[in-house]
Design goal:
single chain, 118 residues, alpha/beta, Transcription Regulator spoIIAA, five-stranded mixed β-sheet, 4 helices, globular
Length: 118
């Protein structure tokens, strides 16, 4: 599931992905992001990746989410300590955001600072 992070404000929004990620999780996430885009214009997003597993439907929904919001996400901070998350950040600029960067879990405050910077 996606848990909205309390540090979210203005056009900067963050989520922690925990447990098992399913297609239904994206059905809840997408309207919230869509509403923020309507209110704020382009947004900046943090994803703290601590999930255990992901369903095939969630992977499909993830790609659809990226296709829908790619033009609206100026910056995407991917937070986590697994090697594949670093690789994901490099791919995110092509699929999810105009600019993406990986941060280790211990550096989550730096991720928020980067998102809020110009």
């Amino acid at each position: 599931m996606f848990e909205k992070l309390s540090e979210s404000s203005g056009n900067v929004i963050g989520y922690k992905a925990v447990g098992k990620i399913t297609g239904a999780d994206y059905e809840k996430l997408e309207p919230e992001v869509e509403e923020l885009v309507k209110q704020e214009g382009n947004i900046r997003m943090l994803l703290d990746l601590e999930f255990d597993s992901v369903t095939a439907k969630a992977m499909e929904s993830d790609l659809a989410f990226g296709h829908k919001f790619h033009k609206n996400i100026d910056k995407l901070a991917i937070v986590g300590d697994r090697k594949w998350e670093e690789w994901m950040a490099s791919m995110a600029e092509k699929l999810f955001a105009r600019e993406a960067k990986h941060f280790h879990t211990a550096d989550i405050n730096a991720a928020w600072t980067w998102l809020r910077g110009n």
